[in-house]
Amino acid sequence: MAQVTLRQLVKKYDDVPAVRGINLDIPDKEFVVLVGPSGCGKTTTLRMIAGVEDITDGEVLIGGDLVNDLPPKDRDIAMVFQNYALYPHMTAFENMSFGLRLKRVAREEIERRVRSAAEILDIVKLLDRKPKQLSGGQRQRVAMGRAIVRDPKVFLFDEPLSNLDAKLRVQMRIEIKKVHKKVRTTTIYVTHDQVEAMTLADRVVVMNGGLIEQVGAPNDLYHAPATKFVASFIGSPAMNFLQCQLDETAGALRIKLGEQLSLPVPPERTGRYKPHVGKARLVFGLRPEHIIEQRPHLEPGQHPFEVKLEVIEPMGLETLVYFVVGGTEVCGRVAPNAVGRDGERMKLVADMNHMHLLDDASGAVL
Amino acid sequence: MRSMKRDRRRALYISYFFLVLFAVFFLTPPLYMLLTSLKSSAEIAAADNPWFVHSPTLENYTALLGSQQYLTFFRNSAVVSVIVVALSMLISVPAAFALSRMKFWGSATLAMGVFLTYLIPETLLFIPLFKIFAFINETFDIQLMNNWWVLIIVYPTLTVPFCTWIMIGYFASIPKELDEAALIDGASYFQILTQIFIPVALPGIIAATIFAFTVSWADFLYPMAFTTSADQLVLPAGIVTTLIKGDVYAWGQIMTACLLGALPPLLIYAFLMDYYIAGLTAGATKG
Amino acid sequence: MTSIAPGVRIAARRPGSLRRLAQRRSVIAFLMTLPLIVLIGALVVYPALYSINLAMLNKSLEHFVGFGNFQFLFTRETFWMVVKQSCIFAISAVIFKALVGFCVAHFVHNVPARKQRKWRGMLLVPWVIPPAISTLGWFWLFDPSYSAFNWIFRQVGLSNVNWLGDPYWARFSVILVNVWYGAPFFLIMYLAALKSVPEQLYEAAAIDGANWWQTIWYVTLPMMRNIISITVLFSLIVTFANFDIVRILTAGGPIDQTHIFATWAFLQSIGGGDLALGASVSLFMFPILAIAAYFILRDISRRGNQA
Question: What pTM, to 2 d.p., does this model score?
Answer without folding.
Answer: 0.80
